[in-house]
Fold:
Amino acid sequence: MKKGFTLIELLTVIAILGIITAITAPTIINVIKSSKEQAFIDSATGLIEAARTYQMNNNNGHDLTVSFSNGTVSPAIQTKGDLPDGGALHIDDSGKVEYALWNSELKKCLIKSKSTKKGEFSTSITSVSNCQIK
Structure:
């Protein structure tokens, strides 16, 4: 009697693994994408707090606009985490925040107006040059 697996048994196992991969891959990709989006939203929240601190310490509570370009920030606020690749954040003297922040990896613009409580990704903005505060 021979020991080992037949070709049919091996092909069956490979087919089952292929089916499992085809079923789970889209779900895994969506989880990774939504995690990156949430991380960008969390970074934006950190940027707002850093900008508020800068506004109070260096700008006497007056209007503050922070610009982002290619991973740099002006004025130089102290923040942790990834910086947006483009866009701007504005805080007026009453503390209302608006922003348009671009993430090149996601190819998305996160937008928040003064009248909304949280930012949302815009489906109509597809480039950094169009990701601007309105």
